[in-house]
Design brief:
Helix content: 40-55%
Bound molecules: cytidine-5'-triphosphate
Shape: elongated
Structural class: alpha/beta
Strand content: 5-15%
Largest sheet: 4 strands, mixed
Order of helices and strands: HEHEEEEEHEEHEHHEHHHHHHHHHHHHH
Amino acid sequence: VGGPVRDLLLGRRSLDTDVVITHPAEPVIQAFVSRHNGRIQRRSQFMTYELSFPDGSRMDVATARKETYPHPAALPLVQPSELLHDLARRDFSVNAMGISLDPVHFGRLVDPLGGEMDLRTRRLRALHPHSFIDDPTRIYRAARYAGRLNLGLEGETARWITEAIHLGIIAKLTPARLGHEWQKILMENDPRGALRRLQDWGALRFLSPGWRWRPGHERVLNPRFCSSMNGNDSLSFKLMSWCRPFGAQAAHEALGHLELPSRMRREVQLGLALLEAIERRDPLTTLEAARAPEAVKHFLSRALPASLWKWVLRSRPRLSGSDLMSLGVPPGPALGRLLAALARERWEKRLRSRRDEIQYVALETEKRGQVDNPPGR
Ligand code: CTP
């Protein structure tokens, strides 16, 4: 059901397998996992099961169910139901199709809500007027699917989205749910289509009040800039690129509205702070930049003029903290000050080689020795 069926019909590769079984699902699931030496990894309050198998593959299985929303933007209450209800409770017709796996009807498309026709005519159509009020995260999902699959919004769907946005329902979502939707947008191979749409609909400001689509985003979010990165790095990189026009302080405040993984927040804040410090020509950045996480370095290398970034990397001191200790500098604040002084001297091109640095350290420690032990004492 859902995404894999949509993707199969579009000839796109689908990453997950979603299966629905009518009630009672658990005996079928138990039999299935024991036959394939798998296990039930997790059960949720929504009657869903996460299965895992010895070859590392995973599968999401759910009991066919219908949903009720106790109030707008609440998590739904679910109860077992028939397949038709399970499809009808979903967000969009293109996500409300199934393919039968039972031996008698194996391979038959189950499409009671016209999803296949909508895919053909490239329309994104919600299934009922309350869809976005019950679950405002669907506004962000709509932008993602429209952007990813290049679908147009069907007329009523567009109206329902506008109404839900004007009612301010999105503001009822928790920072955790908003953070999750935001990450899903950034996980898109090319998030620009979704972001442009959210800007047009006026839905970006619910993620953070100052966020707007800026023309510069077009270039910096081009997917070719992060094609070589792993998933987490590319997420941090895209978030830094997105936040850049708003500045480090604004990004710090914006990240307060969304619950995001702490590693991602740290990297984004470091990246933007370093960018501003390098632009101010602060020599201390040479110490930080060289040992920054990959995503931060990748961001800086894109965001700065190539010659400046090269200069930052080239002008970091050759001596490290442990080199200084082996030269006899005791650990402590004085060592930090000496490293900072080395960075400054290097930046100003007064030191050019490791040997220059060693001489500088020797001179400085000698001076310090004279201050600590003035002659005649
Ligand atoms: N769904 C929904 N409303 C939501 C979230 C999910 O109706 N707020 C339904 C949709 O039918 C969707 C299915 O649950 O197809 C699975 O959700 P998810 O895994 O988030 O989406 P996929 O369709 O698999 O799409 P993607 O390719 O983005 O993962």
